[in-house]
Amino acid sequence: MRGLFLSFEGVDGSGKTTQAALLAEHLRGLGHDVVVTREPGGTALGAALRGMLLHGVGDAPIQARAEALLFAADRAQHVGEVIAPALDRGGVVVCDRYIDSSLAYQAGGRELAADEVRRISMWACGGLLPGRTYLLDIDPEGAMGRLDRGPDRMESAGGDFRSRTRAAFLGLAREDPDRFLVLDASQPRERLAALIRADAEALLSQERP
């Protein structure tokens, strides 16, 4: 694959969606072919799964293992339909959440076995990992105050869940420091955007296969 794959991660309210859009706009201005996408919901199938995952299905709760499998199904379709084709043609993919969200939310937050979540997630995506993952780190309780809408199913899981999720994200970053760039998401939006732009431009200036 000849393109560059960039992902944004963080707890809900961290500002990752905003920063992903700002980066994509900047890179397009430089003349790059940029695809902005998200998980869940980057395909028609993913949009249907997103509704289930964020809002539930009827009155019965979604079991943690079923939740992990639904996210993996979304990712398998997403990679095959959107991400891999864009990378194959040399484009830049900017993705709002990817595999690390499964590891943070389902393994960290839901307390499923991390090796099992990783195995099904890596199988679903064919082992494809981003070249850079921007982790926007912020206190989860402060981040919740940024939301301008009612909380969805994942956001309503409670403070302990959110704390475990943040800790899991930071643990993933420590395990893979070459891929992750951890950024303080509480700093001003434009300052954060400038740091991300500089890093992305440096990656794009490197010779890619």
Describe what this molecule looks like in 3D.
The chain is α/β, with parallel strands linked by helices and 209 residues long. The protein has a single domain, classed as P-loop containing nucleotide triphosphate hydrolases (Rossmann fold, 3-Layer(aba) Sandwich), CATH 3.40.50. 54% of the residues lie in helices and 13% in strands. It contains eight helices and five strands, in the order E-H-E-H-H-E-H-H-E-H-H-E-H. It has helices at 16-29, 44-55, 64-88, 99-109, 114-125, 140-144, 159-175, 189-205; strands at residues 4-9, 34-38, 92-96, 132-137, 180-184. It has a five-stranded parallel beta sheet, sandwiched between helices. Helix 4 crosses helix 7. The radius of gyration is 16 Å and the shape is globular. The chain starts with a strand and ends with a helix. The model has no long low-confidence stretch (mean pLDDT 91).
Q: What percent strand?
A: 5-15%
Estimate the global geometry from the Cα principal axes. Answer: globular
Taking all Cα atoms into account, the compactness measure Rg is 16 Å
Largest sheet: 5 strands, parallel
As for the number of domains, it is 1
Mean pLDDT across all residues, rounded?
91
In CATH terms, what is the architecture? 3-Layer(aba) Sandwich
Instruction: Write down how many β-strands occur, each being a DSSP E stretch of 2 or more residues.
Output: 5
Please estimate the helix content: 40-55%
Write down the CATH class.
Answer: Alpha Beta
Order of helices and strands: EHEHHEHHEHHEH
Low-confidence stretches: none
- In DSSP terms (H or I, runs of 4 or more residues), the helix count works out at 8
Strand order of the largest sheet: 2-3-1-4-5
Tell me the distance between the termini: 7 Å
CATH homology superfamily: P-loop containing nucleotide triphosphate hydrolases
Structural class: alpha/beta
Could you tell me the CATH topology label: Rossmann fold
